UniProtKB/TrEMBL annotation:
<dbReference type="InterPro" id="IPR011913">
    <property type="entry name" value="RfaE_dom_I"/>
</dbReference>
<keyword id="KW-0808">Transferase</keyword>
<feature type="domain" description="Carbohydrate kinase PfkB">
    <location>
        <begin position="29"/>
        <end position="318"/>
    </location>
</feature>
<dbReference type="GO" id="GO:0016773">
    <property type="term" value="F:phosphotransferase activity, alcohol group as acceptor"/>
</dbReference>
<dbReference type="Pfam" id="PF00294">
    <property type="entry name" value="PfkB"/>
</dbReference>
<keyword id="KW-0418">Kinase</keyword>
<dbReference type="GO" id="GO:0005829">
    <property type="term" value="C:cytosol"/>
</dbReference>
<protein>
    <submittedName>
        <fullName>D-glycero-beta-D-manno-heptose-7-phosphate kinase</fullName>
    </submittedName>
</protein>
<dbReference type="InterPro" id="IPR029056">
    <property type="entry name" value="Ribokinase-like"/>
</dbReference>
<dbReference type="InterPro" id="IPR011611">
    <property type="entry name" value="PfkB_dom"/>
</dbReference>
<dbReference type="GO" id="GO:0033785">
    <property type="term" value="F:heptose 7-phosphate kinase activity"/>
</dbReference>
<dbReference type="GO" id="GO:0033786">
    <property type="term" value="F:heptose-1-phosphate adenylyltransferase activity"/>
</dbReference>
């Protein structure tokens, strides 16, 4: 029987994290499911304006490819030392092959469904002197047959993993997410969801959902106070049968809403260089630590520390074991 959560009066601080042995994290088996993309960066100098239009001319001098979306989440889990698998759909194209290559380099086990009609998603960013000038996206949606095949493969992979992580970027890879969550919970596996859009009914029954402020506001509306926020989240958790919700609040840190109460972790004070990909690091750290046998509260404390480290790096970056615990 599901018991609707009560609304505590105020949040309490999350305790300081303890050091987790490397061997303990190495036993954690995390399966990431979701939308993958290739983050492609072009770096160059701008010394003139184009004679064709009032736009800068970038002389590209360096190119770099990084794993994006769910692939970056899996890479983050692997960087911490967990066993990370990735179930996703990619195209039969150059960026698809590049993703396969980068996954191999990062220690992630790929479970790839290939769709010949799919353009593997690329986010191309053009930068000059660490400033982004332009982003160009290439994408379409995977075929129905490939997604059904992915669902069958998901069921086969479930017994081999301790924690399931759904990374939704609204590119179509999680069309069957509701069935996946139900199957995972029936198998006794915790399910973490990084949500997208305003239809959270599809995430019903998830263990933990990890929205940022803008994503949560899209679903529950603008809250007027902390008490109002607490009441709205309690109702949402009861309606969707969510065990917990972790709200990431940028410079305000993060707040965990769970059956045990409401806990808050203040942001780790350091220079913020780039917040892109910080949400990936947070949910990957949560999954790795839950897979290692830590409590949700302990996992949140470490996820908050990891977020403070990763925002000091450029682009979709990772945090490794030594950075997190030393």
């Amino acid at each position: 029987m599901y018991n609707p959560p009560t609304v505590p009066e105020a949040s309490t601080p999350v305790p300081e994290p303890r050091v987790v042995p490397r061997e303990q994290i190495a036993r954690a088996r995390v399966l990431v499911v979701g939308d993958v993309m290739l983050d492609r960066y072009w770096f160059g100098d701008v010394n003139r304006i184009s004679p064709e239009a009032p736009v800068p001319v970038v002389h590209v001098q360096k190119q770099e490819d990084r794993l994006g979306g769910a692939a970056n989440v899996a890479r983050n889990a692997a960087a911490l030392g967990a066993q990370a698998g990735l179930l996703c759909v990619v195209g039969h194209d150059e960026p698809g092959e590049r993703i396969v290559q980068l996954l191999g380099d990062s220690g992630v086990t790929p479970y790839l469904e290939r769709d010949p009609a799919l353009l593997t998603t690329i986010k191309l960013r053009v930068l000059s002197r660490q400033q982004q000038l332009l982003r160009v996206d290439f994408e379409n949606t995977p075929a129905h047959e490939v997604l059904l095949s992915g669902l069958a493969r998901f069921d086969a992979l479930l017994p081999q993993h301790d924690v399931i992580l759904m990374s939704d970027y609204a590119k179509g890879g999680l069309t069957h997410v509701t069935r996946m969550i139900a199957n995972a919970r029936a198998a006794g596996r915790p399910v973490l969801v990084d949500p997208k859009g305003d239809d959270w009914e599809r995430y019903r029954g998830a263990t933990v959902i990890t929205p940022n402020r803008a994503e949560l506001r899209e679903v529950i509306g603008q809250w007027k106070s902390e008490e109002d926020l607490h009441a709205r989240v309690a109702k949402l958790r009861a309606d969707l049968e969510l065990d917990a919700l972790l709200l990431t609040r940028s410079e305000e840190g993060m707040t965990l809403f769970a059956a045990e109460g409401i806990l808050h972790a203040s942001a780790v004070a350091r220079e913020v260089y780039d917040v892109s990909g910080a949400g990936d690091t947070v949910i990957a750290t949560l999954a790795a630590m839950l897979g290692a046998g830590l409590s949700l509260v302990e996992a949140v404390s470490l996820a908050n520390r990891a977020a403070g480290i990763v925002v000091g790096k450029l682009g979709t970056a990772t945090v490794d074991y030594d950075e997190l615990f030393h």
